[in-house]
Structure formats: structure tokens, C-alpha cells
Specification:
6 helices, alpha+beta, 109 residues
């Protein structure tokens, strides 16, 4: 059972790993706290290089500061009240199948 977009990201990572594509899933409950850490610490969590996929069903405004200038695919919705249990997220296109297709079609992916 998927409880949030984190569960969806973990499932997607397993799907990509089975195809030989390495993925690191990072759950970031507080973007501000992450950004307050040193660059060295942040690079251990989010190593430099490689594309980034942001999966967010709730609060999207701060993700540009996290991804910076690196290629990033933002799979997000920030409509008020749009954050919901996984069963309801499919209404916004947050399904394993749709996310995998969008990542595979992304030029940097």
C-alpha cells in the first residue's frame, strides 16, 4: 500500500532498478531544514551530477532551490487541497505507470 508520493517514489525506484537504472530516493519532509545544512552535508544526500526527478503532491515552491541548475523533472501538483492519500493521487496522474512513462520520455532521463 502506498501512503504518499514517497511510497510511489520507492516503487518507481524498484521498477527502474530492475531495468538497470540506478535511482536514489530522498524523502525531504522539510526543505528549509535541508537547505540550512552545509553544502558538504547536502552533497552526501544529493550527490552532484545526474538528473533529478521531483515528485511532490503538496508544496512545490521550494524545490527550485533544492534542484538548483541541474536538470530536473518536476512531477508536481500544488493546488490547494491536492495532497491526498495515494489512492486519490491517481486523479492527478500520480501513478507508477504514468510517472515511469514521463521519466522515460524525459530527455535527461
Amino acid at each position: 500500500m502506498l501512503l504518499s508520493e514517497v511510497g510511489l517514489a520507492v516503487s518507481a525506484a524498484a521498477l527502474f532498478a530492475s531495468s538497470g537504472i540506478p535511482v536514489r530516493v530522498v524523502s525531504m519532509p522539510c526543505v528549509e531544514r535541508f537547505l540550512a545544512q552545509s553544502d558538504d552535508w547536502r552533497s552526501t544526500v544529493r550527490p552532484p551530477g545526474g538528473p533529478v526527478v521531483v515528485l511532490e503532491a503538496g508544496r512545490t515552491a521550494a524545490w527550485g532551490a533544492v534542484t538548483g541548475a541541474r536538470p530536473a523533472l518536476h512531477l508536481e501538483t500544488d493546488r490547494h487541497g491536492a495532497s491526498a492519500p495515494a489512492g486519490e493521487l491517481k486523479h492527478f496522474g500520480f501513478t507508477l505507470e504514468s510517472m515511469a512513462l514521463r521519466v522515460k520520455a524525459w530527455p535527461a532521463g
